[in-house]
Amino acid sequence: MLLDVLAGFIQELREVGIPVSMVEAIDALEALGHTDLSDRQAFKAALGATLVKNARHYEAFETAFEVFFALDRSFPPAEEQVAGAGGAESGDGGRGHPGSGGGRGGGESDLDELLQALMMALVGNDRELMRSIARRAVDQLAGMERGRPVGGTYYLYRTLRQLSADDLVQRLMEGTPEDLSEFDSRLAQEEYEARLEQFREEVRAEIRRRLVADRGREAVAKTLRKPLIEDLDLMHATRVELRQIEQAVHPLTRKLAARLAQRRKRFRHGRLDFRKTVRRSLSTGGVPMNPQFRSPRPSRPEVFLLCDISGSMATFARFTLQFVYAMSSQFSKLRSFVFVDALDETTRYFDEARDFEEALARVTAEAKVVWLDGHSDYGNSLEMFWDRYGDQLTPRSAVIITGDARNNYRPPKAELLGKIAAEVRAVYWLNPEPTGYWNTGDSVMRSYADYCTNVYEVRNLRQLEQFIEDMVIPTFRPAPRHRTAVD
User: What is the dihedral of CA 413, 414, 420, 422, to 10 degrees?
Assistant: First the structure.
């Protein structure tokens, strides 16, 4: 039974995006052989230590763990503690089962008694009592029904709303001594907020347990599944998610830089030096036992980065600039340009600024990117780039263009991209839209793709990381030029 659950748990981690190899799965089993399985925290720590290799993935691991190893418990006699603390009478059958209906019991009087018991548990920081109250609250207030296709978030909201959880901290603060200093009052408020969050987590755990009992582990895990930070859609991330992505950028770039440096070592041998090989073979009777190679002369590309910073592309451009600048050590020269319906070079802002945020603020305030009406015009922007900087392009240059290629039904002037491509080593286009949206509406992606070395769908940090890796490595072995057809 445990092996079946553990196999499903590991498969869920893989579905989320956490890399778990067969060897790591075997290591987890071996670790559990030395773990007290009755100790849930030790059990969780053993799995986390063997299956999770990145701190950013631990939250997803915890979510899957709580689903697959939810405590299958019925209501214990501890529920009598609720009645004793708040005077609430225990209800009748059905408690502890997913099919328990909400709103049963004595109505307002039961709710008041439940609130009184919860207040006492929060004041005394009684975790066992909080757990019992959480089970009772879900039983009476969540309104859970068997087979009902409703997510746990709805049940959580319904339970906490009826408990007026948002007002509990204020009510608790009203019971504190009036002569408390401002500092002590603040400490007390933060402590009550932490205890209330503990209670919320107990309610979440109880709802999750009942959903698992009703629908099964796999179904609930799929409902609660969230993408990893590196898989979050940059175009549709929330403000909180955007902050998490920003925090993940530099660790990702450090990891990528280290991997690129390691791969460079694999290209230490250049092309075969036929003359030296033949000369060395004289000592072995003409048999080329020791082939000789020419010393490689790897070169780092000069990068011209053109970013569409119009309203729809602003968030994507921000992370592209941040990621590429964090990887600037991999390029011999990096020049950045931003555009809407006009184009301006912003390299100096990044060279002069103390940090990325300051540079980005100067780009927003000082870059001259609006020529006519402030709507994206790729054709005019490409024309300005070619006229001003076309003579500075070299065969070592790589041009990266980021944007959705939505040109507001203006002339795309794709032939200008063809002129640029003829002067440089490679042209890459990063499009944050799903490929199914390309060439729909005012998108002219097909017109530009014919002149690109490659076109990438880049919607998250993982895809952006993969693009940088693909772009840098071929500089040590010239990549063939090819066209990318976009259907």
Answer: -130
- C-alpha distances (whole Å) from 341 to each of 372, 374, 469 are 7, 6, 30
Amino acid at 455: V
Q: 3-state DSSP call for residue 175? A: coil
CB atoms within 10 A of CB 190: 11
Alpha-carbon span 68 to 216, nearest angstrom: 9
Distance CA 412, CA 381 (A): 10
Please give the sequence-ordered ranges of beta strands (E in DSSP) within 300-431, or none if there are none: 302-308, 333-339, 343-345, 397-402, 426-431
Closest CA to 338 of 361, 302, 369, 366: 369
Structure tokens at 391: 């003579």
Residues 372, 398 contacting (CB under 8 angstroms):
no
Q: What is the pLDDT of residues 57-98, one digit of tens each?
A: 888 898 899 888 876 554 333 344 444 444 444 444 344 444
DSSP state of 393: -
**Per-residue pLDDT tens for 182-233?**
888 889 889 989 999 999 888 988 888 888 888 888 888 887 888 888 888 8
From start to end of 282-332, where are the E strands? Answer: 302-308
Q: Where does 163-237 have alpha helices with state H?
A: 165-174, 182-215, 217-224
Residue 435 contacts residue 443 (beta carbons within 8 Å): no
How many other C-beta atoms are found inside a 10 Å radius of the C-beta of residue 127? 13
Say if residues 242 and 318 touch (Cβ distance below 8 Å). no
Mean pLDDT for 267-294 is 79
Residue 436 is encoded by which pair of tokens? Answer: 């199914």
Round to whole Å and give the CA distance between 409 and 15: 40
Cα 201 to Cα 350: distance, rounded to the nearest angstrom: 44
Write out the two tokens for 165. Answer: 């959880």
pLDDT at 101: 44
Comparison of pLDDT for 36 and 107, the residue scoring more: 36
Q: Give 418's contacts (C-beta < 8 A, 6+ positions apart).
A: 450, 451
The answer, as to whether pTM is greater than 0.70, is no
Please say if the pLDDT value at position 111 is more than 80.
yes
Cα 121 to Cα 127: distance, rounded to the nearest angstrom: 7
- The candidate with the shortest Cα–Cα distance to 234, out of 344, 321, 303, 327, is 321
Yes or no: say if 2 and 47 are a contact pair by the CB < 8 Å rule.
no
Strand partners, 450: none
Burial 208-241 (b: 16+ CB within 10 A, else e): bbbbbbbbebeebbebbeeebbbebebeebeeeb
Distance CA 64, CA 295 (A): 51
